[in-house]
Amino acid sequence: MMRTLFSILAVLTMLTTACSTTTGKQTDGNNAMAITQETGKVEYLTYDTFLEKVWNFEANQQSWVYEGELPAIIDFYADWCAPCRMIAPIMDKLAEEYKGQLKIYKIDVDKEQKLAAVFQVRSIPSVLFTPVHGKPMMQAGALTEEMYVKVIEEQLLNK
Questions:
Q1: Which residues contact 98 (CB under 8 A, 6 or more apart)?
Q2: For the chain, what is the domain count?
């Protein structure tokens, strides 16, 4: 019942709060934002750091093998996207609140078009919820802070 309600709310939210995007030429990752190594902060990923910290799909093409030790949220975004800017402070707050329990990563779809293509990101924000064990779950569109917390608690931290 709760999953059905969450799914309905997620679809409604997605229909009203997503920006459309297209993917084209790929970048080499050299233009990516600086990466912060502090815990409790959102970390920006490049193509290379994604392969290292999340999933090396070049080496494991047939199956998902998560490289991280903590569950993660991966926010596919663009600077020009209003819903993306709306959830950015939520992601910052969640990174601080779940410091040491969860990683929050961001991927700029304009700079990392190959990563966006791998995940077939067609609208942004698109958020990939990545448990330590099991398959990741993609959510297109912005959610409320409460909805992100619910997914974190129930799906990523299994509380």
A1: 104, 152, 157
A2: 1
pLDDT at residue 24 in the model? 37
Give the global pTM. 0.77
Tell me if 114 sits within 8 A of 45, measured CB to CB.
no
Containing domain of residue 7, as a range? 2-156
Describe the chain by its helix, strand, coil percentages, rounded to 5.
35, 20, 45
Q: Which of 11-15, 35-39, 106-110 has the lowest mean pLDDT?
A: 11-15
Under 8 Å between Cβ of 72 and 130: yes
List the catalytic residues: 81, 84
| Burial tier of 87 (Cβ tally within 10 Å: 0-12, 13-18, 19+) | buried
Q: What is the pLDDT of residue 25?
A: 34
CATH number, position 36: 3.40.30.10
Contact predicate 19/84, CB 8 Å: yes
Q: How far apart are CA 113 and CA 25, in angstroms?
A: 7
